[in-house]
Amino acid sequence: MTTIGHDQAAQHDHTHERPSGWRRWLLATNHKDIGTLYLLFSFVMFLSGGVLALLIRAELFEPGLQIMRPEFFNQLTTMHGIVMVFGAIMPAFVGFANWMLPLQIGASDMAFARMNNFSFWLLPPAALLLTASFFVPGGATAAGWTLYAPLSVQMGPGMDLAIFAVHIMGASSIMGAINIVVTILNMRAPGMTLMKMPMFAWTWLITAYLLIAVMPVLAGAVTMLLFDRHFGTSFFNAAGGGDPVLYQHIFWFFGHPEVYIMILPAFGMISQVIPAFSRKPLFGYHSMVYATASIAILSFMVWAHHMFVTGMVVSGQLFFMYATMLIAVPTGVKVFNWVATMWRGALTFETPMLFAIGFLLVFTIGGFSGLILAMAPLNVAAHGTYYVVAHFHYVLVAGSLFSLYAGWYYWAPKWTGYMYNEVRGRIHFWGSLISFNITFFPMHFLGLSGMPRRVVDYSAQFTDYNQLATIGAFGFGLMQVYFLFWVALPTYFGKRCAPAPAKPWEGAQGLEWTIPSPAPFHTFETPPEVK
């Protein structure tokens, strides 16, 4: 790993004007402040999406209609997905990128500081559009988070607000991705070659290229929807010579790389945490880099595995089935390398490591159910059932969210200058892990038994597992509120928390641990030298 050519402490005594009050946040150009804004926004959206999910689970506690109309239930399932994907998970990873990439590569800031500010301030108006869509005639869009035509062509004005929100969030993502690419390629410290970069920087570089490639595809898909709705075109209208399945092809050409946009930065975080608490270098660093690039390239070749039931020709089904199985190979390489890093390491199990190992176990379950869904014959049987819901959440909650928590516990001492409360961190981990599995593991059985997803009512035979899932979901939600009030806020305000040293983790490596805790407002104005 990297060693530092000279002592950095002298660099952090400079006296710069530091904006204060509302100007510091509204006009922020410092990467740390913008990273904090992203993280705050994403957590608010995460709690909002969580409330929508709990309303869904409350309705599904028993068969029959309990607390809402079917139309509103469909709005909730749609908005829960859109809010979580575009409002919570993606901005959270961009927040970590803003905070950590300049610190990890020895840069003074992000390359385009004002564009960085603009890319964040696009997000709150998009969130307001999504929220407002509940209050227009007809309510929010109820076409599913994928916004499939022809349903999305027939929806009320709430659909238009969702289209505009997705457009704005996409523009924000593209600007953020350009910023990350230019920062990593042009602003690394002297001596830091690409193959000396931390894995988190590598995974974000590759993710940023994915974002630049696929966000315009989503913009094209929703623009065609908008034209079909208001300007008389027939892209997705069979009566006018269009094809509803065309929308699925365009959407999933964005949508499958999007899944990896939400998991590759997670892989990078886990690749920072596991070596630190194993007190060993990452096993197979080069193979991890190549595996990440392989996943990104292959992600463009698997989109139609979401569409096995659309009447695809058998040769097409075979191609996408084999391509999807192939993408499991580089993912398996990563899991093997993480396990090999821990093998015979001097392991300790602080909260970041617990979340990393929890990620490893539960993400692997999601990977196996994904392999099952990759097989066309099995997919036809499980498509549109709760088995898909279980798979998706094992990958995204256990994948993205657990890695975000691992990263937060790992880097929060550097951000805040305080050590979080270890006992409370462990309560948060075990409560989240257990309640997550109580919620989503029964959904495998529900799906295999034939319960369709996105339906407000169900047969009495599915009641027990649904009640188990609802109890688990409320437990999981409570654990995230516990994290906010008993872990995160006390750490940020330093309430009964020990001051953090510059390097709180014995096995941690990298430039970010050479600066004081909390990280000063300006860092690395004289670039460090990496030897």
From TrEMBL:
The keyword Transport applies. It is an enzyme of class 7 (translocase). One of its GO terms (cellular component) is respiratory chain complex IV. Signal peptide: none annotated. Its EC number is 7.1.1.9. It is found in: Cell membrane; Membrane. The chain crosses the membrane at residues 37-58, 78-101, 122-149, 161-187, 199-227, 289-308, 320-340, 352-374, 386-408, 429-448, 468-489. CDD domains: Cyt_c_Oxidase_I. Keywords: Cell membrane, Copper, Electron transport, Heme, Iron, Membrane, Metal-binding, Respiratory chain, Translocase, Transmembrane, Transmembrane helix, Transport. Belongs to the heme-copper respiratory oxidase family. This is Cytochrome c oxidase subunit 1. It comes from Mycoavidus cysteinexigens.
